[in-house]
Amino acid sequence: MLIISLDYIGTFAFAISGALAAIDKKLDLFGILVIAFVTALGGGTLRDILIGQQPVGWMLNIDYLYLVLSACVVTYIYRARLMAWRKALFVFDAAGLAVFSILGFEKAFDLSLSAPVAILMGVISAVFGGVIRDILCNEIPLIFRREIYATACFAGTVLHFALRDYLPLTLLTLMTILFILTVRVISVKYSLHLPTLADRD
Amino acid sequence: MLIISLDYIGTFAFAISGALAAIDKKLDLFGILVIAFVTALGGGTLRDILIGQQPVGWMLNIDYLYLVLSACVVTYIYRARLMAWRKALFVFDAAGLAVFSILGFEKAFDLSLSAPVAILMGVISAVFGGVIRDILCNEIPLIFRREIYATACFAGTVLHFALRDYLPLTLLTLMTILFILTVRVISVKYSLHLPTLADRD
Amino acid sequence: MLIISLDYIGTFAFAISGALAAIDKKLDLFGILVIAFVTALGGGTLRDILIGQQPVGWMLNIDYLYLVLSACVVTYIYRARLMAWRKALFVFDAAGLAVFSILGFEKAFDLSLSAPVAILMGVISAVFGGVIRDILCNEIPLIFRREIYATACFAGTVLHFALRDYLPLTLLTLMTILFILTVRVISVKYSLHLPTLADRD
């Protein structure tokens, strides 16, 4: 129940983030739908293909398509308000990231893949939709920009795995989602980033 | 029988469209083969991976590889004529689009996926090969340009689904393929496009 | 035994090649890991997805992740030396190419796919990791540059298939790997390339 609601929330948040990026790029209505769709469902699709769960998740539950459609309608109607509130894209993106990291890990771990691989599946579920969005919009993938991004997903998923035997799963899931969201917000607010060789050399 | 001939025609048309794009980009012979190959078989490959039909279709029937090879040879020999006739690329592309939309829908629908998902599989089969072609040739994907493109595939596939219980499948398939081709030709001739926010705001 | 050692060597070589490209692009530590990872494991991942062997190879054997990690650490420590020796990137890339072509062919051929398809799987295993590396680093894919590249993989894999009934597999594998490496080195040294239409017209 919780898992499904969270998955729906993450899908909706990522679809809005994609639709906003497409509107910003002045794409037509079809372009907005496509970008919203790949942003919201691209990460889970790659995860399902890698672990061999096909037809992939959203093909077996029509709700996901309707969620993406509704997110596009909502974004379209409230676009002025959302664009004015410049951080909207970022907040929705961060929410999607947090939810998909943990749910992606759980899905892979349930298939008895090893913990490092399941953690990687969590990160891929979270970041890959955004990578396709950025490639299609011809942007440098956000994932390679300087703030902590996939690293937040990675840290949160590792924490989730580490505490998995000690806390009830529902509580832990909510906690680690909040953790990723917080790390992401703080890292953008204070422009935290991983060291590069340019910093050192 | 009809399905197979149409599939071969679509593959051949898309391979020519890809080879022409690669010649236009001054790629070497290997580049021509690669672009023809991904244009012709990329969409069906993604569809088969998403629905879990692996090894994907063209791997089990060697004809597809030979079709792509022959299309490259034909395009290479008649390149002057084909390039002079500037609309060649567009016409072959439109034919591939029309055929793959309907066949992709049928393949997914036969696996008892829901109609909206099967329609989406039709559109993906049709447009995805061209998207990879454009990304590899470093062009803005044709799918995002202003004329009606994927929308033609979508409309034709929806029509196909709507009339499926009322007409014999062979007749209907030919009709909806012709419909998509016509929509595409008219939309390019008269520069029809979907509304964008730029039009409104 | 030999297959596994070669696979490890190819993975390590490709991971170093990817890490060097990422350092050259001034990506942060996370970017280095991602590029090393997709370069080393991207080709085999696509091959496994196309033939329907999921979860894909590296997900079932944690060694591959550790190999990529170690390659990143080694590249990071010796980066000055490796970058100074300008040809390092090229040599590691060529080694990965050679090994993955032959191993990719063998894996597909063992599944009783036809020889042309298995040869293609060999070439895809070899070149696709580098294609993703180049797309993510925003470079024109090396595969489309003028020197003999995928053609070397193709020639070597065809040779491997042609001699497969006449030589012991271990000897043949080593020979054809050496052949691909040699063709690649010679073609770069003497700037050999496939004919293009620009040469002729």
Features of the shown structure:
homotrimer, 201 residues, mainly alpha, 0% strand
Overall tally of domains of chain A: 1
Helix coverage percent of residues of chain A? over 70%
| Assembly state | homotrimer
Indicate the radius of gyration of chain A in whole angstroms.
Answer: 16 Å
Q: How does the overall form of chain A come out from the CA principal axes?
A: globular
In sequence order, what are the helices and strands of chain A, one letter per element? HHHHHHHHHH
Please provide a written account of the structure:
Three copies of one chain form a homotrimer. Chain A has about 200 residues and is mainly α. Chain A is built from ten helices and no strands. Chain A has one domain (about 1-195). Helix content of chain A is about 75%, strand content about 0%. In chain A, helix 1 (about 1-25) crosses helix 6, helix 2 (about 30-50) runs antiparallel to helix 4 and helix 2 runs antiparallel to helix 7. Chain A is globular. The N and C termini of chain A lie far apart (about 50 Å). Chains in contact: A-B, A-C, B-C. The interface between A and C is medium-sized, with 25 and 22 residues.
